[in-house]
Every structure is written in C-alpha cells, then in structure tokens.
C-alpha cells in the first residue's frame, strides 16, 4: 500500500474551472459560482424542505395546540393552548406526567446499557473478523451482519417465543439449575431484584423509604429500580440486532488504518493491548463518534420492538417516549401531547450528542492520530 | 443563461413556486367546517374500512356489501385495517375518511366529540330493536350516533374434562363468589390453575359490577372507582391470587384466557363469545362449557362489548352509507354474520333466533340482559390503560391504591372535559 496517498491532496469535488475570464472581478466570479451551486442543490433543498423542515415546523405548531386530529390545525379555529402540553408533561401532577417520566426512566436505562454494549460488541466483532489470520472471515462477517438485515419485527417475534416462561431460554437455563424468570411478563426492576435476592431490601416493598418521595410523579424507588427484566430482554435484542451494522462501520474504518502504522508500532515493540490502546482506538475516534451518535439517537427513539413486544407492558416498564407519543396521538386522540413528547425527546438527544462530541473531541496533536484522521475522515 | 442575475431570478422563481404549491396544497386539502357536498349521481362509490378478526369475517363483510351493491347498483370497496385507530386517525386528519367504518367503543367518544361521526340514529326507524345498553354505548350528547354492529358479553368458560377429573359435577357450576373460589381451589393442581384471566378491566370489571360497583356513575359524569364495592371485588381477586387458584394469563405463558383454557393450563377462564371461534380453530379437542359468571354480593354482572358502524361526517355519500348500514344491521344479515364468524347479533329479535340456534352460547346471550356497557368518555383510553397496567400488580399492590389511582386519573380527565 503506497503511503503517498496520505499526503496527496484530493482533487476538489466541484467542476474544474478554467482561469477567470478577463474583465470580470473575482467577487463577481464567486457570486456566479455560488448561484450555480445553489441551482444544483435546489432539488435536494426542496425535497428536504418539503419532507423534513416543513413537517417539523408543522409538528412544532401542533405541539402548541389541543388537537384531536379531526380538524384542520392550520386555521384560526385551532385550539391554541401555548405551552400547556409541555406543562402537562413536565410540570402538572397527573397521569400524563407520570407516564412520561416512566418512559424517560425506561429509555434512560435502555440507552445507558444498549449504547456501550452494542458499541463494545461491534468493535470486538470488527477486530475479530479483521484479522488476516482468521479463516472463513467472509462467512463470519455475513453471520454477524445477518441480524441487522433481518426485519426487527420478525426478530422481535422470534424473541417473544424464545423468552417465554417455558421457552427455549428458560429450558437452557434449567439445564444448569437456574429457574429463569417469565421474561416479558416480569416488571420487576433488576436493581431491587438483585438487592432483594441478596437480602438487602424487602422484596415486596422495594426501595423502602425511597418509595415515599419522588420527582415528576415517580417515586425514587421507581427511578432507581433499574431496567425491568422485560426491558433487559429488549436491550439484549437490540444489542444483538444492531451490533452487526456497527461492526461493518468499524470494519471499514479498521481496514482504512494504514498497515505501516501497525508495522511501525510493532517495530517499537508494542504488545496487542498497547496497539489497540495507542494506535487502533485513536485512529477509530471519528468512527467511534459516529457509532455512538447513531446508537444514541436510535436508542432514544426506540419504537418498533416496543410496539411488537407489549406496547409498554409489563407495568409500563417498556414504555418509551416514542411509543408514548404514538399512543397519545392515535389511541388517545391527543396529538398535541404526542408532538410535545417528540420535541422534548429532541431537546434531550441534541445536547447529549453535543456532549458526546465534546468528550470525543480531538485532544493533543499527535502526528500519528492526525495522519490517520486525514485519511479516515475522507 | 450564464448571467448570474438570471440564475438568481430563476432560483427565486423556483422557491416561490414550491412555496405556492405547499400552501396551495394545504388550503385546497383544508378542512371545511360546513357539511360536505353530497354526491347526487345515480351510482355511488362507497369505501368501507374494517378491522377484521380473520378471513371468515373479511369474506362475510365482502359478501354482504357486494350483495347490497348489486341490489342498489352502487359500488363498495372494503378496506382491511391492520391498525384501525391509526388508519382512521390519519384519514380524519387527512380529511379523507372512508364512508363507513368500524368504530371501537373505546374510540367512539373521541371520534364523536371531534365531530367525525355523522349521527344517523334518527334516520333508523327501528332503532328500538337494538339492545338498549348498546344504544346507550353509542349515543353522544343524547343522540344515537351509530348502530351497534354486533354484541359480545363475558361468561365463565369451564374445561369439562378437568372439571370431572377434580370430582366435580354439573351441579357444582359456581353461582356465587364463594363457590367460584372453592371450585378454583379444587381444580388447582399440577400444571393446572383454577381460574386464569387477563389483568384488564374488560374482565375484572365484571366482578366490580357483580359487587355493585363500576368505574363511573351510570351517566359517566363522575368517577366511582374508589367505592367500597370495587374494593371488595379486587380484594376477592387478590385473595384468590394469594392461594394460587387465580393467575393472570401471562403467568401461565398464555396470551389470553382462551389460550390458557385450550392449552389446559386453566380449568376456568372469563371470556366472551369470541372464544367459540378460537377454540374451534385452535383447540378443537378441548371440551368446555360456558356458564354465566357467578353472582357477587350485588347479584349477577357481566360486561358487554361492541363496535358500531360509523358513517363519516365528511362522507359525500351519507345517504347511501346509512342505507348500507341499515342493510348490514338487518336481522337476516346479522344472523348470517353470526353463522360466518360467531358474533352475537345486536338486535334483540335476531338475538332470540341466535339463542335457539346456538344453545351453547346461552350464558353469553342471557348476559345481555344485565350487562354493564363499556366506558365511553373522550380521552379516557390512557386512564383505562393505566388501570389495566396497575391491575397487573394486584398481587403485590393493594386494591385501595389501584382504585385510588384510577379515581384520581379519571377525575382529571373528566374535569378537563368539562
């Protein structure tokens, strides 16, 4: 692999322009170029505007209305309620707020467990199938990628059968003498379950004094209950299905790391762990950011598995904001609340993505990292 | 063309055109509060949206609408909805609803309040032939809005083989709560649970009715959830749970009571007449009998469910649509629906014929006489869904806490609605 590709600058993407015609100033020239540029991107701008920006603005307007979905929200007759939907969700004590807080708690645990697990698994798989020594690499890559191309609805249905109380998983557990829970019907939070089994808390009244006080209509005992057994199954499912996709992204990035970097490191006498820590991972940083961000966004918005597997049951412990938004609209004819939930979700995801960008920002100016980055980000 | 100014003009024109199209769309597709223009052509084309329970129902509805179309010279297209709430919601918001559609009782109030349903009850001359409870269920603001399509009530389904194995006879069929509890205890052994049901108010609500309570007052203007009668009902259920003779379906790995009964995990279950079709299709070898739900402290009680045939307020074919509904709800047609997919008629005259023809369904038919209608309050779905969720925790929670939550949540919705 010629290392010179590292240094050569890529050709600019736009059309090659001849030298400016005499008699026209550079400013005028740039303007002309800009106009052409705009003309070329117009189709995409129109498509994005029509199908993304406009609907988002419409939804933002709906989130300020009390709208039952059966009249035109864009006339003067619309029942404008200002920020009342947001107040119901965040400020006003009631069922709406409790449900929303429950869905936030569930999703927070879901994100907290799913994102690191799927990223680590994907990276591990990618490093494994990237080894030149490994036999049948192609087959392994296909197998690992397979869950990702399968419909999430189909996978969810299969999981429903696997995790039944008398399903295959519990039967396998019984071989080693473990009596598995009734996975999808078990609303108990794993934190209290583990503490209860250790005898540290009362099993029937988990949380003790924490159950008396709370915030957003949910007691502290509920907030700290951890994901329920049912939600853990959901986490397992999504880690299993998404890690294949992210493995592919990591694999592409791994193959982009110049061989001579590894060779240079080998000459310096590093072992495998040091190679991973000081060469591979820094080189993967932009891709790691991509994978974490995609994972974060997708997990906060999880909907289809919830829709298939129990619509929030058992005990609302698999309720997610995305599903709650859907059911507020279509089941409860309260589209204003549904839209408001969507925007609160946006307000959660954006800062989190920003925070992540800040954490993963480029630090130091190590030549190695920079050299790789130029290539990796192309 | 290479002049930048002309390019800018072109771009601006493009943008303006797009903007015009967008705003044009929204105003032409906009909502019109006045009555929709009625089609006056000789041949009308109606669309019907149904949420079908299976192929048998689909075929029966298609056949019936085709027969009507042949009679009148109009055309009818039957659309199958996989998620009818969502599809109707979209259709209403998009201002293009189907002309005739199923309306579930839990969505009825939402649609009626939103003005999406055309109230045609006053055009039905023989409306009094329909069961009074069901007519109440589909009335809004004192007016009958739509005609009930069929009816279903709950009964106690018993696996007769397990019953005999436990040394019980037909004389032991429970008629009181005490007998129910005793029988369930006798039947519970091995992998069998005496009584299996689903944790929802559409089942356990029947016991609340038997205890003399219900979620709201008869007018649905005030919550009566935390009454002593309701507490008594939940306490009874909880006591049966405590000794293991009552379990929820998910605890025995079943999706619903019928599945538990069919898989012989339940000796008894509380289900409606849809059980017939399911047992015939999935568990033809399981012998069972349906008896009325045992009476509670306040006498007999059961729940009645139905869908109604909604006609869209935005439909341009209302006259033809009402005519189609009249045809579909006639006694003859309802009986043929009953034959095809096992639903009970919603007309009392047809119900009598049905009872003669299907003696096994006697308990369900009789239930109509004393059944409680479902709650139809706009915006109440979330409250009832939460009640169902809380009922799942009945084993570890307390009836007072669950009913208190229902009282509070429901009260808020009622307060906001007023």
From TrEMBL, chain B:
Pfam families: SBP_bac_1
Database matches in Gene3D superfamilies: Periplasmic binding protein-like II
Keyword entries, A-Z: Signal, Transport
Record's keyword annotation contains Signal: yes
Alphabetized PROSITE patterns for the sequence: PROKAR_LIPOPROTEIN
Keyword Transport applies: yes
InterPro entries membership: SBP
Annotated signal sequence range: 1-27
Family membership: Belongs to the bacterial solute-binding protein 1 family.
Name of the molecule in the record: Extracellular solute-binding protein
